[in-house]
Amino acid sequence: MSAFDELMAFERESQALARVAGRLSWDQETVMPRGATGQRAEEAGAMEAVLHARRTDPRVGDWLANAKATDEDGAAQLRLIRRSYERAIKVPADLATALARLTSKSQGIWAEAREAEDVSAFLPTLKDVVALKREEASALANGRDLYDALIDDFEPEMTASELGAMFEDMRSGLVALREAALAQPAAPELTGSFDEAVQVALSRELAQSFGYDLSRGRIDKAVHPFSSGSGEDVRITMRTAEDDPFNCIYSTIHEVGHACYEQGIDPTYHLTPIGQGVSMGVHESQSRIYENQLGRSRAFCGYLYGRMRDVFGDFGVSDEDTFYRTVNNVNRGYIRTEADEVQYNLHIMLRFDLERALMSGDLQVSDLEAAWNDRFLSDFGYDVDRPSNGILQDVHWSVGLFGYFPTYSLGNVYAGCLYEALQRAVPDLETHLSKGDLSAPTSWLRTHVQRHGGLNEPRDIIALACGFEPSAEPLMRYLKDKFEVLGASAASGR
C-alpha cells in the first residue's frame, strides 16, 4: 500500500470510532438514564483518549510527509487530515481526556440546574470548563487570539475580528427592523391544545417532504433539538409543547436541514475527512435556509396552513395570509431557538461578545449572569425573567462549544447568499413551495452545496454555489424586503 492508502485506511477507522463517540452523545441527550451521567463521563473520556491517540499518532505525520494525492478529492483529504493532525498534536492527551470527561459530566449538571432554575449549581462546573477551554486555546493559538483558536474548530480561517465587524455592520439594520416590526399590530396567536402525537406525525411528514431519509435516520425528543451523525446514520431530535406546534414543526425542519446536508454528501466520501459538513457556518446555512427562506416563506406557509387545518382543525387563524404573519410574528421573547428571523442574530451577538470576553479574561464566570442580563436588557429592552430564559437556556457552554455560537449568524449570512442564487436557478420556486413540494430547492442545494462535503473551504463552497463572494448584504436585503411587506400587511389589517 502507498503512504496515501495506509493513511486513508487508518483515517477510516478513526472516523468510525468518532461516529461511535458521537452516538454516546446522542444517547445521553435522548434515552440515557439520568443516573448514568458519572459512568458516561468516564466512557466519553476513554473514547476521547483513544481518538486523541489516533489523531496524534506519529505515523500520521510520517504518512503525510510521504503521501501523494492523485486527484482533487485526495488533495482535499490530505489538507483536512494535515489540519486536524497539526491541531491535535498541540493539545496534550491528558487535557483532551479531561475536557471530554468534564463536559460529559457538565452537561448533566447544566440540565439539572436549568430544570431547578439554579445558576449557582452550574457556575462552579462552568468555571472549570472555561479554564480548560482557555488552556486548550492557549495550546492551539501560537500567540494568536485565544478565541480565534477556538473558532477554527467550527469555521476554519475565520476570525473574531472579521465576525465582529460583520455583526456590527448588521446590528443597526436589525435593530431598526425590529423596532418597526414591534410597532405594528401583532399577528393572532394560535389557540387551543395541539396533541403531541399529531405534532410528531406531522413533523415526520414534513421531514420527509424536505428530503430526510428515515431509512438512514430517526427522530427523537430532546430538551435541546440537535442533529447527530453522518453518512448512513444521521439522527435528529425535536421538542414539543402542547400549546405551540411551531416549536415542534420548525425545530424539525431546522434539524432536517443539518441532516440532509450529511445525507446528501457523496457516498464515496463516507468515513473520510471530506465525508462530513465542511464547517458549522455552512452547516447552519442549510438548516436556516430550510427553516426560514423555504419553511417560513409565504408560499410554503399557505401549504402548511392547509395541512395544520387538516390535522388540528380550527386553531384560531382565519386565512393563509394571517397564518403567514403568525408564523413570522416579531414579538418579545427570550429563547434563541424560538426567535424570529429579525431578532435571532441579536441573540447570537450577545453570546458571541460574552464568550469572547470569557476567553480573553475580561469577564469572569462569576459575573457572567449579571453580564448576560445587562446585555439582554440593553439589546432587547426588558429584563430576563428566569435563568432558563437567560444564561441557562443553551447547552453549548456546558459541553465546551466556545466559538460555535457565531457560526449560527454566519450560517444565516450564507443562507441569504444561497437563497438569492436559488431564486435565480429555480424561477418557479414559489409554485413548488405552495404545493409543499421541496424537491426542486433541496435538489439544487444537494447538487451545489451538500454533495461536496469538505471538498472545498467553507467560503469557497458558498462562492462556487452562488457565483459571488459571500457577504451579509443578501441576508439584510431579504430580511428588509420580507418584514417591510409583513409590516405593511399588519398595518392594513390583512
From TrEMBL:
Catalytic activity from the UniProt record: Release of a C-terminal amino acid with broad specificity, except for -Pro
Keyword annotations from UniProtKB, A to Z: Carboxypeptidase, Hydrolase, Metal-binding, Metalloprotease, Protease
Enzyme Commission number(s) from the entry: 3.4.17.19
Domain of life according to the entry: Bacteria
Top-rank EC class of the record's enzyme: hydrolase
SUPFAM superfamilies, per the entry: Metalloproteases ('zincins'), catalytic domain
Recorded GO MF terms: carboxypeptidase activity
A matching Pfam family: Peptidase_M32
PROSITE patterns: PEPTIDASE_M32
Cited InterPro entries: Peptidase_M32_Taq
Similarity section: Belongs to the peptidase M32 family.
Biological role stated in the UniProt entry: Broad specificity carboxypetidase that releases amino acids sequentially from the C-terminus, including neutral, aromatic, polar and basic residues.
PANTHER family per the UniProt record, alphabetical: CARBOXYPEPTIDASE 1 (PTHR34217:SF1), METAL-DEPENDENT CARBOXYPEPTIDASE (PTHR34217)
Name this polypeptide is given: Metal-dependent carboxypeptidase
Protein source organism: Roseovarius rhodophyticola
Phylogenetic classification of the source organism: Bacteria, Pseudomonadati, Pseudomonadota, Alphaproteobacteria, Rhodobacterales
